[in-house]
Design goal:
Length: 220
């Protein structure tokens, strides 16, 4: 007799699968992870896992988009509790937030770096579009909160777009940092000019970009 799960049980199972995948990805490279390993981590069969996510790419794309949505929502909530931000305050906040994103959401930024070349190849397009629409709304809410917080330093669309720029800077640095390794293994050859210090260099890039951007586009 087939097991019949309630909606809450299905949601819990789906979340358990996502959590297991996140835990594996925190310690392994993407190619090293299999759906069988994820199924075993949640005490399930591979077939049962595929009923929730049809491919590994679909699973990790869902993690990426849903976690980014939650991240934007949390930023919006946190911002609402802060005092108003001047232009300099906003640059400092965004610079600090860049460090926190890298330090506290390493799975998120690593997944984002492989989104285009790997995940989109086999992820479900319609589900991805639905999740992107939810992410877009969360991004708009975050941008609108920054409009309020900075007393219209920029408009909502400009603020929201800056988080795409931030994401691009981090993803680009992550991919270029791989020049000192091959298939996630450190090379024995020394390439000092290829070394990238992710946090300080990402902060430097976002600070420089924001300074120039505000000079050109600020409403104040």
């Amino acid at each position: 007799m087939a097991n019949i799960y309630t909606p809450s049980q299905k949601a819990a199972k789906r979340q358990a699968i996502m959590t297991a995948a996140i835990n594996l990805f925190a310690h392994r490279s993407y190619p090293e992870i299999t759906m069988q390993q994820i199924a075993e981590a949640v005490g399930s069969s591979k077939g049962a896992t595929f009923r929730y996510f049809t491919t590994k790419e679909d699973l990790f794309m869902t993690i990426l988009l849903e976690d980014y949505q939650q991240y934007f929502t949390q930023l919006t909530t946190d911002l609402a509790q802060q005092p108003p931000l001047s232009a300099d305050d906003f640059i400092a906040w965004m610079t600090t937030q860049t460090r926190q994103l890298i330090e506290e959401h390493s799975v998120l930024i690593r997944l984002n770096a492989i989104r285009g070349p790997i995940l989109e190849g086999k992820a479900n397009m319609q589900e991805t579009i639905t999740q992107r629409e939810a992410l877009y709304r969360a991004s708009q809410h975050l941008g609108q909160q920054l409009v309020i917080q900075t007393d219209h330093l920029l408009d909502q669309s400009q603020f929201s777009h800056l988080f795409i720029i931030q994401s691009g800077i981090i993803s680009g640095l992550i991919n270029m940092a791989a020049l000192t390794s091959f298939n996630h293994h450190k090379l024995s050859v020394d390439y000092p000019d290829f070394e990238i210090r992710l946090i300080p260099e990402a902060q430097q890039q976002i600070r420089y970009y924001l300074t120039q951007y505000l000079k050109e586009f600020s409403h104040k």
